[in-house]
Specification:
The chain has 465 residues and is α/β, with parallel strands linked by helices. Helices cover 31% and strands 22% of the residues. The protein is globular.
């Protein structure tokens, strides 16, 4: 028997490959199908099942393409109503896979259809649970994403408590927990950087599993939840109703345009210019009105948070050789309308003599010198509120990147505005958005709060109860 976790850091997502005696199953696959098919071919195995733990909100699953290409059966647990053909498993139902068995444990709470899959090995031992968003390492799934009708987040949190108490906690301590996400995912609030653990450790250390009552559990799970990213609802809909083949999406997005043709295509389609280079390269020169979301950070989640319309045409400026990767990473979160990329990247644009824009980017030391000259300078901190409350530059305004578009009126246009985050990734994203909106006096502070703290600029924290 083989159990392999296929972890994708950009999405903090874990998919799983299980193989036994020539039969394989995939749990919660990402949209690209080739990695799973290659693994099965290498093992001489047939992919028999694609198990889905729930309708994912933070990525588009690869279940449809994978089933179409391999003939595998898509399996959901109870309450999963789709517009395409699936097998609706019953709570407690068993699926034979080679010499092992996968048992369905319906665990509603994160969503109504949420299901955990229990792996029973060749000797009849309960070996592992694939928990989706029901149980994470250090946390549980947020219960506020599937509110419908009279159903509230308190109701779902109560269901989640019951699911954990009756289906998960009674399992042996040596069972391995394989969740769908780790630290960095917006599907929880307190996830560990570890991506697997024993159930026994989680019973001892996971705050949610240690709650002594349902009321205490509900209070702790709901406390501190932030607003869900804007793209979550649309991704859940795509997973429920279906989507275009990934092969067609990748083919369309792989269209290469020379500079003149690229400019014409953008003008014709109204495409958003998305530049995925790193922040330092972007600051030195970019196509006017481009938005910078670098591939070197949490690219897909930030695209989802900042581009509300998944049908928006997108034209790419990428480092040479990373065009296909960029199209794929957009497709993972449902952005399928990429019209193509600038052939040769930004250097080709420069060589063609096209118009170029820049953003002033200064070191933390330079920022400190300017602050000393004018302590009342405008400072915008685009980190999350919890980061800001922990420590921030005295006098800074906190405008989190997630909802920067809603707070443009709070930013002055006529004087320099110094923008920073924790390390520089988010601040350049913010600066590119502001520059595209006509803020021509933005200044990026390189290294963010980490670098600023090493200067003499005063730092304070927000007092909370």
């Amino acid at each position: 028997m083989v159990i392999e976790q296929l972890y994708t850091g950009c999405l903090a997502q874990g998919a799983y490959y299980i193989e036994s005696n020539g039969e394989a199953a995939i749990i919660d696959p990402l949209r690209e199908t080739a990695p799973y098919i290659r693994k099965a071919e290498k093992d001489g195995a047939r992919i028999k099942y694609v198990f889905e733990t729930h309708f994912h909100a933070d990525f588009v699953s690869g279940h449809l393409d994978l089933a179409w290409k391999t003939g595998a059966t898509i399996v959901y647990g109870p309450n999963a109503n789709t517009t395409y053909e699936v097998y609706h498993a019953k709570d407690g139902e068993m699926f034979a896979l080679g010499d092992v068995v996968i048992k369905v444990l319906h665990t509603p709470g994160h969503t109504l259809e949420s299901t955990t899959y229990l792996l029973i090995d060749e000797n009849g031992n309960e070996k592992a649970i694939f928990t989706g968003d029901t149980l994470f390492i250090g946390d549980v799934g947020r219960p506020d994403l599937a509110i419908k009708g009279n159903l509230t987040e308190h109701d779902l949190a109560g269901m989640l408590f019951d699911s954990l108490q009756t289906k998960i906690i009674p399992l042996p301590d040596n069972v391995t927990v394989y969740p769908a996400h780790g630290a960095g995912s917006a599907c929880g609030k307190n996830m560990s950087k570890e991506t697997t653990d024993t159930l026994g450790n989680q019973k001892r250390f996971n705050y949610a599993l240690r709650a002594k009552s349902k009321d205490e559990f509900i209070e702790k799970v709901l406390d501190g939840l932030t607003q869900a990213p804007a793209y979550f609802a649309e991704n859940a809909r795509l997973n429920k109703e279906g989507y275009e083949s990934i092969d067609r999406v990748l083919q369309r997005g792989s269209q290469a345009f020379l500079p003149d043709a690229f400019e014409a295509a953008v003008n014709e389609t109204g495409a958003l210019l998305l530049d995925v280079r790193n922040a330092a390269d972007f600051a030195q020169g970019f196509i006017p009105n481009s938005i910078n979301i670098g591939l070197n950070g949490q690219f897909a989640p930030w695209v989802g948070a900042l581009i509300p319309d998944l049908t928006q045409p997108i034209a790419l400026i990428t480092p040479v050789g990373q065009e296909g990767e960029t199209v794929l990473r957009l497709a993972r979160v449902g952005y399928d309308n990429c019209i193509g990329f600038l052939d040769g990247g930004f250097p080709a644009w420069q060589q063609a003599g096209k118009e170029v824009d820049t953003i002033e980017s200064i070191s933390a030391e330079e920022f400190a010198q300017r602050w000393q000259h004018n302590p009342n300078v405008a400072i915008v901190d685009v980190r999350k509120p919890v980061e800001f409350d922990e420590e921030h530059v005295k006098g800074a305004k906190n405008l989190p990147l997630d909802n920067l578009n809603d707070h443009m009126a709070e930013i002055q246009r006529n004087e320099p505005v110094y923008v920073h985050c924790a390390g520089g990734y988010r601040s350049m994203v913010a600066n590119s958005i502001l520059k595209a909106r006509g803020f021509n006096n933005v200044v990026n502070v390189e290294g963010g709060m980490g670098a600023i703290k090493k200067t003499n600029v005063p730092v304070e924290f927000t007092l909370t109860d």
